[in-house]
């Protein structure tokens, strides 16, 4: 039985040292006994306060807030009223995480050394010694290091109280609060949520002041609940006298459920019943939703995009369509939504169109309005998303549907009122084609002009198109190249290279980039090309430049000034023109270095003689590994192999050194055949290739 104990002395009694020591020890023990009885009344180590937190100046350091700790197995308690100085951790491993622990213990320490006389009771000899006249229990803090790569913290040492686990990530040099897992158990036996070992070794009953405050937040001084925090557990539900019947609770406010009004005094039961009935009917209703909608036979000549002054009226232009007297116009954007609907164009104020007036208030119920013309609204279908809107009484808020008889981006195809949708040779952007006609019109092996990808992808800028293509390449996942063809193109508005800006010219098509292959270099290389990519070439010569400043082909293309220029300033300017350099994919390919082959890394590059013609003529790109494959764009036609510069036929460089001399590189002539010329020739055309992913 633990009781309060202390030393006593009779008047004039000569005391022994053991009596004084017992007085000290008992005072400490009494504190531990009293706090244990008041705070925990159970076994186990516990801590009050003692939160471990990052040290103010950072680094691999923490501090410990004021603490009272009690070790159950030893009965030793210790208190520290000041925040500790920095407690330091060992340096992190370069590649492996570890978990350390912070543990504390109370240790006795003597202090206040003084010179005192001692009497030998046997001989009566008196001596002088310097001894500690006082002692105290001090807080000892230990950081116990865990094992690198282990997901478990080390076990707490005997005699110590565990305060926290601290994760030390590989390479870290700063401990943040999210790495520290403090005590969150509030009673003996409860586990600390984020600890990995000795999970229930320590608990923290918290400060009494904090506990009282938490209690008083939700309670009055007499212990009763405050009005705002009454919970169901505090209410006596039932059907007996004095009990609360849940079904009799009033709704508290008036509301309407599917056209049925409920007053504020209506019981919750009746409201729930109405909601349940509607929910039960909802599945059947939604399951048959499309069969209730039909197209209106009356087709407006135009549909509004903004408020129209119907009081002034008159003939006008709506969404790019000139409307005239007597025609049907669909207004859906009136400032007062009650005015929305069908109108007849008049020389003065407009009237609602016959059949769509207040005398037929439900004329738009379950009806689809098809708009056949207009700049913004052509091909769109609109409807009301409810069953109760009345013409002239309610706001008519028309919603655009996700389907259309026309081929509009991101919309499903639906037949019109006559059971048709557009199906013919795809000449217009809104047309849908039959398979045979589509195949005939879109087949392209590089022998004819392709399609503008802005139209194909339904976007307005090159950057938007590249973002769509980036998503469809899908990195190292499964690519989606469906609907894309060799020869499809994008026209760059401008290209700035090394301070010079080249601007798009529609006549010369100088900045047109053309899809020339799909995954052309995939899996190739000593360093594998792992990403899905699209191969592009410039349709025409962008600029003219020499291959080297002198007539040498030593080291091949990879050692040339041209390679440095294209992979450097040209690639930087091209990335900006595409919307981001992140779209450019640096590929590995094997090309001639003059007499043998080597693996090179290129971002923007000249194609080799084999990549253009499929075989070597003057160059030596097939003298070793033979990894070159002819580009699809150049395989079936000379349409893209023959290029122009500012409207005139021009020759252009290839990345292949001449096989039998040391001065020349191969090129494609203005007539489309293979040849060679001196490396320093300055009017060689640049029509490079590149890959995007």
**Backbone CA Rg:** 43 Å
Percent of residues in helical segments? 10-25%
DSSP E strands, number: 41
Q: List unreliable stretches of 5+ residues.
A: none
Major beta-sheet overview: 5 strands, antiparallel
Distance between the termini: 78 Å
**Which strand order spans the largest sheet, edge to edge or round the barrel?**
26-29-30-41-34
Strand content: 25-35%
Question: How many H/I helices?
Answer: 9
Mean pLDDT across the residues is: 86
Q: How would you classify the helix and strand content by structural class?
A: alpha+beta
Shape: flat
Question: Can you tell me about this structure?
Answer:
The chain has 693 residues and is of the alpha+beta class. The protein is 15% helix and 27% strand. A 5-stranded antiparallel beta sheet has the order 26-29-30-41-34. A hairpin with a 4-residue loop joins strand 4 (67-71) and strand 5 (76-80).
């Amino acid at each position: 039985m633990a009781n309060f104990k202390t030393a006593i002395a009779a008047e004039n009694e000569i005391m022994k040292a053991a009596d004084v020591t017992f007085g000290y020890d008992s005072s400490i023990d009494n504190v531990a006994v009293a706090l244990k009885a008041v705070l925990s009344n159970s076994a186990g180590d516990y801590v009050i306060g003692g939160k471990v937190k990052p040290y103010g100046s950072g680094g691999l350091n923490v501090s410990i807030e004021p603490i009272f700790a009690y070790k159950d197995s030893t009965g030793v308690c210790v208190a520290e009223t000041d925040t500790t100085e920095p407690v330091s951790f060992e340096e992190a491993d370069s590649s492996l995480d570890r978990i350390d622990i912070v543990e504390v213990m109370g240790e006795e320490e003597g202090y206040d050394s003084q010179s005192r006389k001692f009497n030998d009771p046997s001989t009566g000899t008196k001596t002088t010694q310097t001894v500690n006249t006082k002692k105290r229990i001090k807080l000892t803090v230990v950081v116990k290091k865990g094992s690198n790569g282990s997901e478990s913290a080390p076990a707490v040492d005997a005699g110590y109280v565990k305060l926290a686990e601290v994760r030390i990530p590989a390479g870290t040099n700063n401990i943040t609060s999210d790495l520290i897992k403090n005590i969150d158990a509030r009673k003996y036996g409860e586990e600390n949520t984020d600890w990995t070992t000795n999970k229930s070794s320590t608990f923290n009953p918290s400060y009494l002041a904090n506990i009282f405050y938490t209690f008083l937040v939700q309670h009055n001084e007499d212990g009763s609940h405050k009005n705002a925090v009454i919970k169901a557990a505090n209410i006596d539900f039932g059907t007996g006298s004095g009990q609360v019947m849940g079904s009799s609770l009033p709704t508290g406010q008036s509301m309407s459920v599917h056209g049925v009004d409920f007053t504020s005094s209506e019981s919750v039961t009746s409201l729930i019943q109405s909601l349940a009935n509607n929910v039960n009917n909802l599945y059947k209703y939604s399951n048959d939703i499309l069969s209730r909608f039909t197209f209106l036979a009356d087709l407006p000549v135009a549909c509004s995009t903004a408020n129209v002054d119907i009081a002034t009226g008159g003939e006008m232009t709506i969404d790019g369509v000139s409307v005239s007297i007597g025609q049907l116009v669909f207004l859906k954007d009136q400032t007062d939504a009650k005015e929305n609907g069908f109108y007849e164009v008049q020389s003065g104020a407009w009237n609602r169109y016959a059949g769509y007036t207040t005398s037929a208030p439900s004329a738009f119920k379950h009806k689809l309005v098809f708009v056949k013309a207009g700049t913004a609204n052509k091909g769109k279908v609109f409807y009301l998303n409810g069953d109760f809107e009345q013409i002239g009484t309610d706001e008519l808020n028309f919603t655009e549907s996700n389907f259309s008889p026309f081929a509009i981006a991101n919309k499903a195809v639906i037949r019109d009122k006559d059971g048709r949708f557009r199906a013919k040779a795809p000449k217009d952007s809104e047309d849908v084609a039959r398979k045979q006609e589509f195949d005939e019109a879109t087949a392209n092996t590089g022998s004819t002009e392709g399609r503008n990808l802005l139209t194909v992808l339904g976007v307005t800028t090159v950057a938007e198109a590249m973002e769509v293509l980036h998503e469809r390449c899908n990195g190292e996942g499964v690519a989606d190249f469906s609907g894309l063809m060799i020869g499809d193109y994008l026209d760059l508005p401008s290209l700035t290279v090394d301070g010079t800006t080249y601007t798009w010219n529609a006549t010369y098509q100088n900045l047109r980039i053309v899809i020339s292959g799909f995954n052309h270099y995939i899996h190739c290389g000593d360093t594998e090309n792992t990403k899905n990519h699209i191969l592009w070439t410039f349709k025409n010569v962008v600029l003219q430049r020499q291959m080297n400043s002198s007539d040498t082909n030593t080291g091949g293309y990879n050692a040339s000034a041209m390679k440095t220029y294209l992979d450097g300033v040209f690639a930087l300017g091209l990335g900006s023109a595409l919307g981001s350099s992140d779209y450019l994919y640096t590929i590995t390919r094997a090309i001639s270095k003059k007499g043998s082959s080597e693996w090179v890394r290129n971002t923007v590059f000249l194609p080799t003689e084999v990549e253009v013609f499929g075989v070597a003529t003057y160059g030596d790109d097939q003298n070793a590994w033979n990894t070159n494959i002819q580009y699809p764009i150049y395989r079936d036609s000379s349409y893209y192999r023959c290029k122009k510069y500012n409207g005139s036929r021009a020759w252009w460089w290839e990345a292949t050194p001449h096989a039998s001399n040391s001065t020349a590189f191969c090129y494609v002539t203005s007539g489309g055949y293979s040849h060679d010329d001196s490396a320093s020739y300055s009017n060689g055309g640049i029509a490079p290739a590149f890959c995007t992913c």
